[in-house]
C-alpha cells in the first residue's frame, strides 16, 4: 500500500474512461468475413493466440492512452540530509525609534536608519548558508509572528524586507521573547538553536512573566544573542544609573542581567553603527556552526511517457496485425488465379474470435 | 502477397491506426510550448480589530467561525489557487494604519512559510483597539503603491469610534491608481462582538454602554436641536447618552462600497472560506508570468478519439444498419 500510495495522477477523473479499454474484447479492428460454418474451420492454436494478442494490444493501446491523459506520476520524496547551520529565531523590534538613525535623528541623505541598516545586514545573513532555518517574529506593543521556522530564505528575506517600514509604539520584549521561543519545534535537541534579538531599547519584563520565560529558556536552551542598536548618547547595557538601580531606571542593564541569569549561552552585542552591526552578525554566524538535519524535496517523476510507450506498443502490434491481415473474401475472388497459402489460413483467426 | 499488402494499405482503419500511432509517437518528440499566463501581485491587508472576532460564519461542519478565521481560510485557499509566480505581501490593520509583515512572497515555491504566516494571524497582534477603516484603507493604498502591488483589503467596515456626523476623511489620492478589491467580511444581520480580558480570555460580549455609540467630536448633527436636553453651549449633542447598535456588528456594505467607489477599488463580499480568486482576478492587474503549455494531452486525446473510432465505428454502423436488432448468430452444427 505504501508503494501504491506514491503513485498518483493529475487528472484522476480521466481514469473513469478506463472501461473503454475493454472495447477490443468485443470489437475488432480487423476485417470481418462471413463464412458459412465456423465449425468447418479446423482448430488452430496459432490463430487463437494471434486473436488474443490483438485483443490485448487493443487493450494496451486504449488503456495506455487513457492513462497517459490522466497524467500519471510518482510523487516526490523528502530526503533528510545533514548540513551545517542553525535554527535561528529572529525577534525584531519594530518600535518607532528603529526608524531613526544611530544618532537618534530622522534619516536624511546618505544616513541610514537603524531599521534600514539591520534590514540590509540581516538580509545578507539570511541565505549566506544554505541550510540555516529562520523564523521571524516582530514585536512592539504586541508580538507578531511574521514567518514561522522555514528554510525558504526568499520568504525570510521578504519578512526582513518589511522591517524598515514605519514602526509602532512600544517595546514589549517579554511577550516577543515567548513567541520567538515558541518557534522552535520539537526536533532533536542536538540542533543548534539561537534566538537573535534585534532591538534599540529594552523594557521591563514583568516579574510574573519572568518565571515562565526562564522555564522556556531552560527547556529549549537556545543560544541567545542580543544585538543592541544603541543610539548615541543613550545608556549602554553596562552603565549603572546614577540614581536608583531599578529595572525602570535602567531597563537595558536589567534586561542584560536577566539574560545573564538564564543559564543559557548568552552574548550581547552593542552596536553604535552599521559596521558594528555587520561585525556582530559575522561573529554570530561563526558561532552557530553545528550539523543540522535538513530536508530536500526530490521532484516528482512524470510517468506519462511510459503510458504513451505502452499505447505505442499496443498500436504497433495492431498495425502489424492490420498490415499482415488476410482477406479471405478477396482470396475467394482470386481463387481462379492462385491457391491460398498456409499463411492465409492461419490468419482467418477473426472468424474464430 | 504484395498485392495483399497494397490491398491492406488501402484499408481505412489501417490508415487511421497509422495516424494514431504517429500521434502517440509524436508525444515523445514535442516539447512544451512557452506562453505567458496572468498572475497576481497583491498586498493583502487583514483587519484584525475586535469586530472581526464576531462569529457569524459557519464552517463546513456547522460550527461557528469568526470573520477573521474565515478571512484567513479564504486567503489560504486563494494562495493555493493562484498561478505559480504570483506573489503576496501581508499586512495587518488595526487603529488607523496597516502594518506590513512581509514584502511579496512567491505563492508556490515559498508556499509553506506563506501558509504558516497566514495561519498564525491573530487578533492578539493588534496594538490598539481603534478601527478607523477609511484612514487604514487610504494608507493601505499608499503601501500597495510603494510595493507596486494590487490591494486586497479585508474588513467588516465597522468604524470604531463611529464616524462623526460630518463623515470621515475623504480620499485625496488618485482614484484607480492602485487596483484591487475591498472584501466585506461578516453577515448582514447584527451580531454580538466577543469581549476578551487582558490575558486574552473571552469574557462575554460587548454591551451597549461598553462602546462609544456616537462620535461627539466636531460639530453636532443638524437635528441635535430636537434631542432632549439640548443646549447649544452645554449639551450640543443633547442631554442624554447616545443609544445605538455600535456594540453589535454586521458588514457595513454601503459604507465599504462608497469607499470602494471613492478609491477606484472593486468590492466583493466574503461569502465563506473561499471564492476570492474570481473577483481578485477581475479586479487586479494581470501580470504576465512565464508558463508552459504541454501539448501531449492534445495529441493524446486526438489519438484516443481516433483509436476508439477504429474499434467502434464498424460495429455501430452495423448496428444502425440492422436497426438495433441483434446480429445473426452462426450456431455450431
From the 3D coordinates, which CATH architecture of the largest domain in chain A would you assign? 3-Layer(aba) Sandwich
Radius of gyration of chain B: 31 Å
Number of helices of chain A: 12
Strand segment tally of chain B: 14
Strand content of chain B: 15-25%
Looking at this structure, what is the CATH superfamily of the domain at 36-211 and 246-291 in chain B? von Willebrand factor, type A domain
CATH topology of the largest domain in chain A: Rossmann fold
CATH class of the largest domain in chain A: Alpha Beta
The main β sheet of chain B shows up as:
6 strands, mixed
Provide the CATH architecture of the domain at 36-211 and 246-291 in chain B.
3-Layer(aba) Sandwich
What portion of residues of chain A belong to β-strands? 15-25%
Q: Helix fraction of chain A?
A: 25-40%
Termini gap of chain A: 38 Å
CATH homologous group name of the largest domain in chain A: von Willebrand factor, type A domain
Low-confidence stretches of chain B: none
Oligomer: heterodimer
- Name the strands of the widest sheet of chain B in spatial order: 6-5-2-7-8-13
Overall average pLDDT of chain B: 85
Question: What's the number of structural domains of chain A?
Answer: 2
Measured by residues with Cβ under 8 Å of the partner chain's Cβ, the largest interface is: A-B, 64 and 59 residues
Please tally the helical runs of chain B, counting DSSP H or I stretches of 4 or more residues. Answer: 8
